[in-house]
Every structure is written in structure tokens, then in C-alpha cells.
Amino acid sequence: MDIRNNARTQQIQNLSGHLYHALSFLRYILYMGWVGIATLVFIPEGNYWVGDANIQVASGNFFLKGLILMLYAFGLLVMLKLNEAFRNLMKQYMKGNIFTEQAIFYVRSALKAGIAVVVISLLHQITGAVYSYFYNSEIDISFAPQIVAAVIYFALMYILLWALEIGGDLNDESINTI
Questions:
Q1: Residue 137 vs residue 163, higher pLDDT
Q2: Cα(171)–Cα(163) distance, integer angstroms
Q3: What are the φ and ψ backbone dihedral angles of 59, each rounded to 5 degrees?
């Protein structure tokens, strides 16, 4: 059975087309983050948020400012990779390639990028907490929202990955039995 002619497949193609365009718009907004980071390089001093800590960078403290901007840049790069994986997945769905190796590859890529997003988020939280402890003698770490969001994200992504792998195997079996 060719699943591309199924009515649900047509609905998936239609919805994934809308999601693809929304993710493309989000990608352009994320690209504006590079402009923001480049602008922050030339501003001599200011306040930067790292985790829950508001860090005031004085002019001349290039090491601290460089460290913070590298964290921002790495986080932005990982978010762009996550966006790219989901955009490519939606592109596959738009073509009707739902249970294919390419779709499974992009789900795995999104899962890996999601892991990187969680690691970067935790790194931001830890860096902010360390800064607060050394400069303000107080520590405030709130990991609960990130951990709950990460567990939900990973559970959904693993279920999607398993469903796609099972669907791909069943689709291959049905093609081979004809």
C-alpha cells in the first residue's frame, strides 16, 4: 500500500508545510541573534543574563565578556541546529516521506540537538550560579523547569523515533510482500 495517497498523509503534508514555513520564519529570527551578539561585542559595558544571574560587565573586562558571548553564541548555534533538524523533518513530511530513513535521521538529529540545548541551558544555569556565589556570596539554582521540559521533550522525541522506525519497518515489509 502506498501511504502517499492516504487522506491522513495529505493532512500531514498540509500541516507540515505550515510548520515548515513557521520554522523558516523562526530561523530568520534566530539569525538576527548573530547580529545581536556582534553588536554586544562593540558595546563597552552592560548587564548580561547568564542563567538566573545578572552579570554586570565593566569596560575592560574582555575575558568575562568574551566568555558570556561565547556561551550566547554556542547556545544560538545549537538552537539553529535544532531548528534545521525540525525544518528538514517537516520538508520530508511535506513530500510525503513519513516512514523513510531520511525522516528517521532528522528525528535523531533533532533529538541530539535537543540534548545539546539542555546541556547548554544547564551550563548557563551553572555558570550564573558560580558567578553569583563568588561575587555575591549567594547561590540560587533552579533546575526544575529545565529538567521537566527536558524529560517531556525526550519522551516525546523517543516515542516519535520509535513510531517512525516501526512504521518504516512495516512500510518496508508491505512493499516487499507485494
A1: 163
A2: 12
A3: -65, 140
140: its cell numbers? 540560587
Domain edges within the chain: 3-177
Q: Pick the residue with more confidence: 47 or 60?
A: 47
Q: Are 100 and 168 in contact (CB under 8 A)?
A: yes
Q: Cα–chain-centroid distance for residue 137?
A: 33
Which amino acid is residue 7, in one-letter code? A
User: Nearest to residue 162, comparing CAs of 114, 107, 109, 88?
Assistant: 107
E strands along the chain, which residues? 46-50, 53-57
- Coil, strand or helix at 56: strand
- pTM to 2 decimals? 0.81
Residue 1 has pLDDT above 60, yes or no: no
